[in-house]
Predict the structure.
Amino acid sequence: VARLIDLAVSAVLLAGLYATMAYGLGLIYGVLRVVNLAHGGVIMAGAYLGWYLFDRFGIDPYLAIPVVLAATFALGVALYGLLVRHLPRGAAGGPASLLLLFGVWLVLRNAAYLLFTGNDQTLRTSYSTDAIAVLGTHLPVNRLAVLGIAVVTPVLLHLLLRRTHVGRAIRAVAQNPDSCTLVGVDVERIYMLSFGLGSALAGLAGVLSATLFSFNPASGSGELLKAFVIVVLGGLGSVAGTALAALIVATVEVFAILVLPSYLTAAVGFVMLVLVLVLRPGGLFGQRVLG
Amino acid sequence: MTKRHVLLGSVALALAALSACKPSSEGKATGKAGGGITIGATLPLTGAEARIGGFYKEGYELAFAEVQKRGGLSIAGKKTPVTLTLLDDTSTPATAVTLADRLINSDKVDFLLGTYSTHLVEAQSTVAEQNAIPYVNGGGAASEIYKRGYKWIFGTLAPVELLGTTLMTWIDEQQKAGKLPKPAKIALVWENTAHGKDFRKGVSDFAKASNGAYEIVVDESFELNGKDFSPLLGKVKAADADLFLADAHLPDYITMHRQYVAAGLCHKIVSYGARGSEKAAIEALGADNVLYVVSGVWWSPLLADKVPPAKAFVEAFKAQYGGRTPEWFQALGYETARSLFVAIELASSTDREKVRNALAKMKIQSLLPGGQLEFTASAGGEAQNPFVLQQNLPDGKAPIVFPHDMAGAEGVAPNPRCAK
């Protein structure tokens, strides 16, 4: 029983990280119908920014979150304004956007190589290896913090989408951009905001990931793949669906060690992806419009 | 998501994964052929093994600089300049293979030096064999590489299986001295590569032959460059083992040990195979968290007191690199290049067959433990030098604790951290 509790705790803590990785990807797809392949690059950029602020100025990574959010939001807005908005409408989710954003990812990666070399970097704070012992289980404080942020993030996102004018506009644009134009919503501005917001969430995932794992310029591909699996499983546009899908993927991966060799457990999520695409192509929770 | 988007996304993600196999940057050729000898090499200068690749590069470059200083290699009484063409294999086997092919068939290098890390060497060495070109490496330790009947492959790293055996021999001494329980339960955790399998064999063969002195209660492999080891460590915790013996490369050692400490684990002996006292690991994990970790390495700067060529190397390295002390990576890079130079001079020719034969026959003074280097024919051309075990101690040093003739301090067992 203690073993199962340990595994369940591991799964919940891992789900927190997975969920933060997926929110941004889901939001951008939900509004723009674009699979943001630069998502992994922005996660990597968020990790480096968090590390740099800590290493250079001694700013705690959790206190640096607002700076990382602002910087990656600005990066997302710039990417949209300079590149994504020029994609032909209607083909935005097609090969053109995939190639463009894949190129952006490569640029980000190689910029990181130039700036920081290819060495692994680790963000080590005084509490990096601290843990709280509860009923014989050790809960690493970093993972608890990541879980807390992963729980708060969708609540804030939900409130933003439901309770604010901008949020309602985002949801409306996600449903029908043409009608929004007719009623005076600045669709381009909403697209830009959504891309910025999605990028900021990727940056958040990056800095949180950096508190747990080493990273280098090639980081981000694994995170993007995982986020992709979760967004597909969770179904389009459902913030709660994304969180639940993250929990399911993490639980299945963690509990797989009971029946599979450790090195195969990471592949379990992808097997789930294939099964869901075959059995429930709309995702486990169906297709919904943001909210 | 629509099916079309999911399909397109999947294809693009597959492309993204493949892009990791492309060279993201290539090291500049550090020299070019001009009547001299050109030696080609790849190293992981970017990607997961970039830090270590950089260390090997320093070793290679020091060896080449020394030859340049003396005017080149002596061949048939004439000094012949030797240059290095070094490319970045991005820590990926596919790139290591492609670039080796390019070095041989496009750049027309005379000989090859190997890359770093077993899984890259394993893939790349096949190209050298197919093209019948001498391939000397200091980065592939798994005996599997040398059991394929290849004729052109030579390795300066002793097999990882021997590392496992050496580690167990020291542990056995501690057990016989009453410092460890009998039987002792082992959690054996290894990376899912030929390197890890070799380590596993060394430990498990020793345990099997111990007449019940050791019981392996966890025997698990993990994926290279993993992120989340908490389920695996949960299994280790549940098994209530006495000894935690892992085999991991540096990035996995750092990631896994961080989670190990956070999970509140402690074992009477903790080892990550060849990793333990690296400066990068101490910086990333904190000196306190790596205390008493035991590592088995192919070389240590502390050998300078016992092995004259090791002393000469340490002095030369410090002079070249601003007083920095080398780790085993630079030493193996240096010794690998130097052994190829010696073979070329012994052959007194650039003929590949003659140099291969010289490599196969030679027995030279070396900076490695034991003081001599030969590429043992019965081991497929892999050197069989002994390992030295080091242990991180509270004074910040990591002295050699085994074998006794090279030891500078007594090893500590059981791990005093567990008493806290």
